[in-house]
Specification:
The protein is an alpha/beta fold. Helices cover 27% and strands 22% of the residues. The protein is elongated.
Length: 645
């Protein structure tokens, strides 16, 4: 059915198949073959081979298949892929630290990881980029109106950093005692490959060249580009009193290439899988080993889904439904319209099966089925996460990490040291006081110091409140300082100085990972279908149009609401809010054609006829991108395993 609807249309297949480790809970999850079966590996591989061969036909040429697996079947799976799907491009294998505490083994090592295999359908497939983690962004510890940055040495290093490599980037900065700077008027002389300097430095200026140990290096940018971006630069004195030019270095917007080792805290299957699922489903609905939603989000991003806002994702080992939850989280982050198709069975756990049998219930009964994985976990999770509440209207309590860094205002902190007057303290006493204060180094405190302000310290201290005006002047443009200590016994003085600093510097801008309340739900639609067998006689008599209507809706992109089936005597179906129409009685084509004329939104028109000639003749008159023949008994459309793998 999926191949009929989506052959060559899927951007990403993400699957977490049973690991075949012999666990005795959800059969879906692990216990595919009995652990004592000497043919357990080949049986598991046979199951995987059929599904992969079918699944790969769903992918677009640039589509990517991601399979998560542990070491038990990892190497067998690699051999299967190379043997039966040789055209796939191996993009990479990520080792994911999903169990920080380690899963105990009887004699070996504690297992902390599983793997994710990324395979492109062809050479057109390219891995996507991942967002930088909070740890990776922490180096960008300063923020301006353009976002986070760090001060980086402006002198170029590494390859092509010598003057002979980039002579245009060898030019001087003229720097004053207060570290203000300018670039002099210059003219490039092509024949000499050097700048001709038209201005001499002023008496209070020194000339700063991009040299390193007397070697002539170059600056990172050309002079004109620097002149147009002066706010991005800073000249500072180093500890040895030498001068150095720094530039604001910002995180690259496109993210980072996925590595082969993934170890974010959020990848923990317990913290971001089990506990999140418990918050969604509530008490009494356990599911073993659900995936971390953030590991799935990043796997989808590595499949280049982040750059495809209308991507189609398929997961035919749906488990607890993490993939759909992850797709909705991605859509919420960038207002995407990605679609996700989940396929799962409805088996019950072994423990639940024993309990049901003891109660006299049999497989297939309503009470039995409602404890199956689909009805008990997968569908409720999908429903609750979209709505933001459960069937009893109780709100979901918790938050998602969005993966997006947001800039927030954080107030600066002020502390009054009111037990003394700082100006009366000796040097030893000042250092003892500073020892009680975070982020102020004792080594930089002097006996006659009225206040401490440092370009590298996030804290500042005022010893002499009579010098508050001078302190405020020194604090100007020192946005990096977050903590202020004022030694005064006068509350009025403390509050006045605090107010002046707040007006001077404003709040601190900090970068934090954004969060989304679970109770907010998602602006998404959800349709649930049960695939079942139909009576061939009923199909042949044309009584099962309602059963195939969801398939036609999906073929047309699942846009708009799923329409109701018309009565058995209807000549056609033309739903108002869906981009497809169905001609049921071919002899009524002219009337049907008049009704669909002017419907520019139609992408699919289905014509029910057994005659290929009739279909071709009618197709010529229909103005729609896709015109599809439906055989009257529909069986011809949905034949499987005929001449295929």
């Amino acid at each position: 059915m999926l191949e009929y609807c989506y052959s060559g249309k899927v951007d990403c297949i993400y699957i977490d198949p049973p690991y075949n480790t012999g666990a005795k809970d959800w059969k879906y999850n692990n216990d595919y073959v009995d652990g004592n079966d000497t043919w357990r590996h080949s049986k598991w591989l046979s199951m995987m081979k059929k599904r992969l061969q079918l699944g790969i036909r769903l992918l677009k040429d640039d589509g990517i298949l991601c399979i998560t697996i542990d070491d038990y079947e990892m190497h067998h799976l690699r051999m299967l892929i190379e043997d039966t799907l040789p055209g796939l491009e191996l993009l990479g294998i990520a080792v994911i630290r999903n169990n920080p505490g380690g899963r105990a083994t009887a004699k070996g090592f504690a297992v902390n990881h599983e793997s994710a295999i990324f395979l492109g359908k062809s050479s057109k497939a390219h891995a996507g980029r991942l967002d930088r983690s909070a740890e990776q962004l922490s180096r960008y510890d300063q923020v301006d109106t353009n976002g986070p940055f760090e001060w980086a040495n402006f002198r170029k290093h590494g390859a092509a950093s010598d003057r002979k490599d980039r002579p245009k980037q060898f030019y001087p900065f003229y720097v004053k005692e207060d570290c203000s700077f300018r670039i002099p008027s210059m003219e490039w002389i092509p024949s000499l490959k050097k700048w001709e300097i038209h201005e001499e430095p002023d008496n209070d200026e020194v000339v700063l060249w991009p040299t390193l140990d007397e070697r002539e290096k170059v600056w990172g940018w050309g002079a004109k580009r620097v002149q147009n971006s002066l706010d991005e630069f800073l000249v500072k004195r180093k500890n040895d009193a030498s001068l150095q030019v720094y530039k604001k270095e910002r995180p690259k917007g496109e993210g980072r290439l996925p590595g082969t080792w993934w170890e974010k805290t959020a990848y923990s299957s317990n913290e971001s899988g089990t506990k999140i699922l418990q918050k969604i489903l509530g008490e009494g609905r356990d599911f073993p080993f659900p995936k971390s939603i953030y590991a799935v989000v990043d796997s989808l991003k590595a499949c280049n889904i982040q750059n495809k806002s209308d991507a189609l994702i398929v997961d035919f080992f749906a488990g607890s439904g993490t993939t759909l939850n992850a797709v909705n989280l991605l859509n919420a982050a960038d207002s995407g319209s990605r679609q996700c198709i989940l396929v799962t069975n409805n088996e019950v756990s072994e423990e639940e099966a024993k309990s049901q049998l003891e109660k006299g219930l049999q497989p297939g009964s309503e009470d039995w089925n409602r404890h199956g994985i689909c009805q008990f976990v997968t569908f409720p999770r999908s429903k609750y996460t979209i709505l933001g509440h459960r069937d009893d209207d109780s709100k979901l309590d918790g938050e998602y990490l969005t993966g997006r860094m947001v800039t927030k205002d954080k107030p600066r902190t002020f502390k009054q040291l009111g037990f003394t007057e700082g100006r009366l303290l000796s040097l030893a006493q000042r250092k003892q006081l500073v020892a009680l204060v975070d982020k102020v180094p004792q080594s930089k405190i002097t006996a006659d110091m009225a206040f401490f302000v440092d370009d590298e310290s996030p804290a500042s201290i005022l010893f002499d409140n009579k010098q508050a005006d001078a302190w405020l002047e020194a604090l100007e443009a020192q946005e990096h300082i977050t903590d202020f200590y004022i030694t005064t016994q006068e509350n009025k003085s403390f509050n006045a100085i605090k107010q002046q600093i707040q007006e001077l510097l404003g709040p601190v801008l900090v970068e934090e990972e954004g969060k989304r309340q679970m109770k907010s739900g998602f602006p998404a639609n959800l349709e649930y279908f049960k695939l079942d067998f139909l009576d061939p006689a009923e199909v042949q008599m044309g009584r099962q149009f309602a059963a195939i209507l969801p398939v036609l809706w999906m073929v047309a992109g699942a846009r708009g609401p799923l329409p109701d089936a018309p009565d058995s005597h209807a000549h056609w179906l033309i739903p108002a809010d869906c981009p497809f129409a169905v001609l049921i009685q071919e002899r009524r084509f002219k009337d049907f054609h008049r009704h669909i004329e002017g419907r520019d939104d139609l992408t699919h028109v289905f014509i029910v006829t057994n005659s290929r000639d009739t279909f071709h003749n009618l197709r010529e008159e229909v103005d729609a991108p896709h015109v599809v023949q439906l055989y009257k008994d529909y069986l011809e459309n949905f034949k499987i395993n005929f001449g295929k793998d």
